[in-house]
Amino acid sequence: PVPAGLPGDPDPEEAVSDDSSRHGGRVRGFPHERGNWATHVYLPYIAQEEFLELLELLVSHARTYVPSLAAMEEFHLSLSQCVVLRYHWIEPFVRSLRERLAAFHRFFCVADQVKVYTNQNKTRTFIGLEVSAGHFQLLELVSEVDGVLEEFDLPTFYKDPSFHISLAWCVGDLSGKVEGQCLRELQDIVDGFEDSAFLLRIQWEQIRCKSGNKYFSFPLR
User: Fold this and answer.
1) CA atoms within 13 A on the CB side of 206
2) What does DSSP say about strands 75-78 and 124-133: parallel, antiparallel, or unpaired?
3) CA-based angle 205:199:70, to the nearest 5?
4) What gap in Å lies between CA 61 and CA 161, rounded to an integer?
5) What is the mean pLDDT of residues 95-122?
6) Are 114 and 190 in contact (CB under 8 A)?
7) What pLDDT score does 35 carry?
8) What are phi and psi for residue 121, nearest 5 degrees?
9) CA distance 146 to 154
10) CB distance 76 to 43 below 8 Å
11) 3: which DSSP letter?
């Protein structure tokens, strides 16, 4: 491997102070270091107008229980944890991903089960839509992504993942306020939403990898 931190390393990410007030009170899962690139592999979801209408209904109702909830602005389904890559690992990492994912075809899944999540260090709570169909294909994708992560001695995905699309978040562990009655009412909203069965049947067409400020796309066949 190339030694890290060589003079003139092409690293556009400047060191930043970890001021949580600048990003809604969120706390980093690991400290920012120059030359370390936060990296994440996921399936991007482009929200349609009907989905945003459903989102508005869900967040508005959930705020009667947790007023600090904020709606997500972008949507995705994770295939990896957020891991740290050195700059000189990015190109071989992406190349290995591209080779392993080249044979995969487009597929559908259904994300229609409302569920509450917290991150590992319990600093954030999320409301998401869990996948109820398409789990097998997602596990196959994760297996290939895990293989690449292992090549670089990086943490693999969770052993028994709950695949989901996050809809809203708040700071702190407020899962107790969402579970139970609130969750049942949110599920009723999803089940009763017009054309929800069609709306929440999602076709995945590409996989994406974000590393720092770089994005890489891997179209499914």
Assistant:
1) 10
2) unpaired
3) 90
4) 27
5) 96
6) yes
7) 83
8) -95, 15
9) 9
10) yes
11) P
Closest CA to 39 of 211, 191, 219: 211
Average pLDDT, the chain: 89
Looking up tokens 């292992």, which residue turns up? 150
- Name the residue type at position 195: D
Task: Determine the distance from the C-alpha atom of residue 176 to the mean position of all C-alpha atoms in its chain, rounded to a whole number.
Answer: 22
Amino acid letter for position 217? S
Instruction: Give residue 31's pLDDT.
Output: 56
Which whole number is the average pLDDT over 201-209?
Answer: 98
pTM attached to this predicted model: 0.85
C-alpha to C-alpha distance for 109 and 139, rounded to whole angstroms: 12
CB contact at 8 A, 208 and 43:
yes
Both tokens assigned to 52: 């945003």
| Tokens 């009907």 -> residue | 50
- Round to whole Å and give the CA distance between 150 and 142: 12
Mean local confidence (pLDDT), 191-201: 94
Distance in angstroms (rounded) separating the CA atoms of residues 159 and 55: 29
Alpha helices in 16-85 (DSSP H): 49-62
Fold of 35-214: Cyclic Phosphodiesterase; Chain: A, (3.90.1140)
Give the CA-trace dihedral at 9, 10, 13, 15, to 10 degrees: 20
Residue 205 has pLDDT above 80, yes or no: yes
**Residues annotated as part of the active site:** 76, 164
Contact yes or no for 153/89 (Cβ under 8 A): no
